[in-house]
What does this fold into?
Amino acid sequence: MVVKAKLGFTLIELIVTVAVMAIILAVMMANYNAGGAAFRVENQTRQVMALLRKAEAFSNASKKFNGQLPSGYGVKIEVNKNPILFANLDADKVFTSGVDGVAETLILSTGLKVNQIAPVGEINIFYEPPKRNIYINGVSAGLASVTIQDSQN
It folds into this structure.
């Protein structure tokens, strides 16, 4: 008597295989999305740092703003607002709307926001040429922290 061997898979084996593959795919997608969010925050942080370096470079080069020589350049960062590079035209070492010039606004990526600033809700980082002094909120010494968060996660 000849016995034929069954070739192929049973329905149960196929369902289990597809279920395992779906679970693995779900875990991979969750990790992919988390990694993408971390990359977006890191990239935006680098752009804010580049804006700070640009303010320092403009100050050290005594770059004119609309034909005027400002007392220096700075960056104003506020919670839930886009950071701005400003030319300090009134020599007070902080951004004054309507008085100081906005040289550049850094548009934060969709879903990213400045979530927290310590010790206060806004910060003005100002570079004074030619001494190369740095002021935080008009004071020559200080420490500040800025947190950028992805609101989509």
In short: The first strand starts at residue 73 and ends at 78. The chain has a mean pLDDT of 88. DSSP finds one helix and seven strands in the chain.
